[in-house]
From TrEMBL:
Originating organism: Lentinula boryana
Official protein name in the record: S-adenosyl-L-methionine-dependent methyltransferase
Protein's UniProt keywords contain Repeat: no
Any one Gene Ontology BP term: methylation
Residues in Release factor glutamine methyltransferase N-terminal domain copies: 21-40
Gene Ontology terms, MF aspect: methyltransferase activity
């Protein structure tokens, strides 16, 4: 494996900034460790230095794209009151933190089953200058039938976002070592057909009082899953649309209460 010039440049900068040997960083990359984990940060929209570390999922550019689009929509709607947002499976906190950064009216809560993710998301809030009054991440299993059992979850919410696990076990076996050996499989595999978490989210959307009367739902989906997720959400009575990512994939299912 020969490192691309840009990767080598980033590793040289990381070595200088952290007083680590360049040789050790190069060896980690040659062992397929993701560049973002070695450097320790990943830009995400206007958040230039979002902290990342294993095993929490590294934010992807396709996620960045729809979150920026959602922020533009929320800002253009010019709400006169605060917007309450719940992010399910928050990971690094990239989705709610970017929305908080771009939309001053957003007050967000993140939930994740991983203590590593919850800790990282709260660290990132502090690094990004988002106060606790506008974002907090909590440990919770939204798949559990009793969710939510904590006072930290305070519906109704105006916005529900999620980039849930959505690949199948077979697809997981085909992932590169960069992903499979370092990122948490529970943040990647969405049940036997990749759709398990969308079924759970649909049940939350349909639950009386969980979302506000003008609520909006934004769900990232796998490249072939948009139609199936739309079919799940259709019975809720929400108006459904699909956003395409810059690579031409149906990437985000949007549901808005009519």
């Amino acid at each position: 494996m020969r490192l691309p010039f840009n990767e080598l440049r980033w590793l040289k900068r990381a070595a200088l900034d952290s007083n680590r040997s360049l040789e050790s960083l190069i060896q980690r990359r040659l062992n397929h460790e993701p560049l973002q984990y070695i450097i320790g940060t990943q830009p995400f929209g206007a958040l230039d230095n979002l902290r990342v570390r294993p095993p929490v999922l590294i934010p992807r550019p396709e996620t960045e794209n729809w979150v920026i689009r959602l922020a533009e929509y929320l800002c253009s709607s010019s709400p006169s009151r605060n917007i309450s947002l719940l992010d399910l499976g928050t990971g690094s906190g990239c989705i709610p933190l970017l929305l908080c950064h771009l939309c001053p009216k957003v007050i967000a809560t993140g939930v994740d089953i991983s203590p590593h993710a919850v800790r990282l998301a709260n660290e990132n809030a502090e690094l990004c200058g988002i106060p606790h009054s506008r974002f907090k991440a909590f440990l919770g299993d939204f798949v559990h039938p009793g969710f939510p059992k904590t006072e930290a979850i305070n519906p109704p919410y105006d916005i529900l976002t999620s980039n849930p696990p959505y690949i199948t076990p077979d697809e997981y076996l085909q992932l590169s070592d960069d992903v499979a050996k370092f990122e948490d499989p529970t943040a990647l595999i969405g049940g036997y057909d990749g759709l398990e978490f969308y079924r759970v989210i649909t049940s939350l959307v349909a639950r009386p009082g969980f979302l506000s009367h003008k609520a909006m739902v934004a769900l990232e989906v796998g490249h072939s899953q948009a139609d199936a997720v739309c079919d799940m959400l259709n019975p809720t009575g929400f108006r459904i649309s699909v956003w395409t990512d810059p690579w031409g994939k149906k990437r985000t299912v949007i549901a808005q209460r009519q």
